[in-house]
Design goal:
The complex is a heterodimer of chains A (40) and B (566). Chain A has 40 residues and is mostly helical. In chain A, 72% of the residues lie in helices and 0% in strands. Chain A is built from two helices and no strands. The mean pLDDT of chain A is 85. Chain B has a two-stranded antiparallel ribbon with strand order 1-2. In chain B, helix 3 packs across helix 19, helix 8 runs antiparallel to helix 19 and helix 22 runs antiparallel to helix 23. Chain B is globular and about 75 Å long. The model of chain B has no long low-confidence stretch (mean pLDDT 87). Helices cover 76% and strands 1% of the residues of chain B. Chain B has 23 helices and two strands. Chain B has 566 residues and is an all-alpha fold. Chains A and B meet through helix 2 of A and helix 5, helix 6, helix 11 and helix 14 of B.
Chain lengths: 40, 566
């Protein structure tokens, strides 16, 4: 693997992207759950 | 359609074709033709990825799905964001480093020629068939609701885009997809805006949301657990969407050339990765908003008369049979039910305060009973339509367009019809481009005499693009009933995607497994997936995970049994 293929865009490591993507998904699931419950 | 609609439709469609031709640049070789000389920035890659995945079925079927089943379909996309990151780390750097044209080239480097050709053939068959359905699905709906000739509609749906796709290759595909998405989102927003605007005085967006929610249409999150256990036949829930959806997205974006071909047009590995990750971030909100259009249409029909069945042709046909009297009885009861619901729902939308809360609870209960009865009436109507010999009784895909045709003003109807055509063109154009690239790179080059010059290869590529276009239109012309069309495309994908992903997972992560083992494992895995689909009621999203894991497990096992032959 070359250095470019190891380095993710914008973040220093892939852990940053994993956290961002997972966090954003969990936030959406939370909001959708609240929506489902509040409008049920 | 009124004259203003025809004018808007013609102007929009011809505008896109002319734009596609204008953005076509003369290619010197197939790298320019299939990969735009690898010079695209990430935001064009992102829009191209989105435009390839979102076909006409997405915009026709999703609002209908929200109307009939609620918004839980959005969970189908929950596995996608994580899959994008995994792809960016594992698949994409290898594709870039090897400067591949197709994903399947990698399999010859890693295994052998027969595995590459098998995988390429699986792709060609599944992609060509699903592209045929992508042409047929919106055409049958438009022809039913507008009385257009289905054969001619298929030709316009799948044929006009061939003009710029054959001529301009991947570059024309990417730039037109960008324009198409702008028109599509503008059209969908205006349709939702109209649905809310046409609600009675005192009922706005928040009240519409509340009404849809009380009647079970805002069920975004469902767990899939029922009667104390997990329901494996339940199609869309948190688990199937996250796990099954993850495998499906990994397979679709990592091994389907129609997507791989989009991000290989990027100017660098970084641009490919940015395009994919951004797609992961915007996909769920985008799909949520498309489904929300369906819930607004649902709220609209709580205050306006809704047809008992949204496919007008099927409705008229059943009335010309011996079921006429039974259908008319259903319609009378349906009209009464709707009148009762309208009275209740008016109070529900505006109930506030403590007394309003008490009234709301009893109203919601009464409305839920009426809604269940209405759903049962719609089910009985479908039964009559089926019994009268119709091949298709499901009207989910007709709901949104019927709303558009019956209730939107002149001009906007034309724009929404254009949205259907254009969204189909966006995904079909990418499919034709990828079918041609895999045919020339994986099949033609393998069997043709070596030494063809660039100009000749480019000419042949254009011929293949054209021929695949004709083939997909023929599939559309021969297509018959396939139930809910968005599901038909996804189910077809699930038959093959899991196995394709399994082959690539072995390639990336099981370094000791050789060509023979993975080849036979793929055949066994495919047989298992088809047997499971035909022999059980398992929800199709699980087939992706099972197919992939079966190929990996069988390949590891065969490698142990047949070490000497590998």
């Amino acid at each position: 693997m070359t250095e470019e293929s190891e380095k993710p865009p914008l973040f220093p490591s892939w852990r940053g992207w994993y956290l961002l993507v997972t966090g954003f998904l969990l936030l959406q699931i939370l909001l959708f759950t609240l929506l489902t419950k509040s409008c049920a | 359609m009124r004259p203003a609609d025809w004018i808007v439709l013609m102007l929009t469609l011809s505008g896109i074709i002319l734009y596609g031709i204008a953005r076509s640049r003369r290619s010197r070789d197939i790298e320019g033709y299939f990969l735009s000389n690898r010079e695209m920035p990430w935001y064009i890659v992102l829009l191209s990825i989105m435009g390839t995945q979102a076909s006409a079925i997405t915009f026709l079927s999703a609002p209908g799905q929200a109307y009939t089943d609620g918004m839980r379909f959005v969970q189908y996309y929950f596995g996608l964001p994580l899959a994008m990151v995994v792809l960016c780390i594992s698949f994409v750097p290898i594709y870039h480093r090897l400067r591949l044209f197709t994903a399947y080239e990698f399999l010859e480097t890693r295994f052998d020629r027969k595995t590459r050709i098998l995988t390429s053939l699986i792709f060609l068959v599944s992609r060509a068939l699903s592209t045929g359905i992508s042409i047929y699905a919106p055409s049958i709906i438009l022809s039913s609701l507008l009385g257009w000739d289905i054969y001619l509609t298929n030709i316009v749906m799948g044929g006009l885009l061939i003009v710029y796709t054959v001529n301009g290759g991947a570059r024309a595909v990417a730039y037109t997809q960008q324009m198409i998405l702008a028109v599509v989102f503008a059209g969908m927003f205006l349709a939702a805006f109209q649905a809310v605007r046409l609600l009675p005085d005192g009922i706005g967006f928040p009240e519409a949301m509340r009404i849809s929610g009380h009647l079970g249409r805002l069920n975004v999150i469902t767990t899939g657990f029922k009667d104390g256990g997990f329901d494996w036949t339940d199609r869309y829930n948190l688990l199937s969407g996250t796990i099954g959806g993850f495998f499906l997205a990994l397979s679709y974006f990592g091994t389907d050339q129609s997507q791989v071909g989009r991000y290989l047009t990027a100017s660098s590995l970084r641009e490919s990765r940015m395009g994919l990750i951004m797609n992961g971030l915007v996909k769920v909100p985008m799909q949520f908003l498309i489904l929300l259009v369906g819930t607004m249409v649902f709220a609209f029909y709580q205050f306006h008369e809704a047809p008992l069945h949204f496919n007008r042709v099927a409705e008229e046909r059943v009335k010309s049979t011996s079921y006429r009297d039974s259908v008319e009885l259903l319609e009378t009861r349906h009209a009464m039910l709707q009148a009762e619901k309208r009275t209740l729902v008016h109070g529900l939308g505006t109930s506030v305060g403590a007394s309003g809360e008490r009234m709301r609870d009893s109203t919601v209960e009464a409305l839920a009973v009426l809604q269940r009865e209405e759903d049962a009436l719609r089910g009985r109507m479908k039964g009559y339509i089926k019994a009268a010999g119709a091949s298709e009784a499901n009207d989910t895909n007709y709901i949104f367009l019927r709303f558009v045709l019956d209730h939107l003003p002149a001009g906007l109807v034309g724009l929404l019809i254009a949205v259907i055509f254009l969204s189909a063109w966006g995904s079909i154009a990418a499919a034709l481009n990828s079918l041609a690239s895999s045919t020339i790179v994986d099949i033609h080059r393998t069997f043709a005499k070596p030494g063809a010059d660039d100009a000749r290869e480019l000419r042949i590529s254009k011929v293949y693009t054209f021929l695949w276009g004709v083939f997909c239109i023929l599939v559309a012309e021969l297509a018959t009933d396939m139930g809910s069309l968005i599901e038909a495309v996804n189910i077809l994908g699930s038959w093959f995607y899991g196995v394709m992903l399994g082959i690539f997972l072995v390639a990336f992560y099981a370094r000791r497994v050789g060509g023979h083992a993975v080849f036979y494992a793929a055949l066994i895995g495919e047989a298992l997936v088809i047997l499971l689909y035909l022999g059980t009621d398992m929800a199709w999203l699980w087939l992706n995970a099972i197919g992939a894991l079966a190929v990996v497990a069988v390949a590891l096992l065969l490698q142990k049994i047949l070490p000497a032959r590998n």
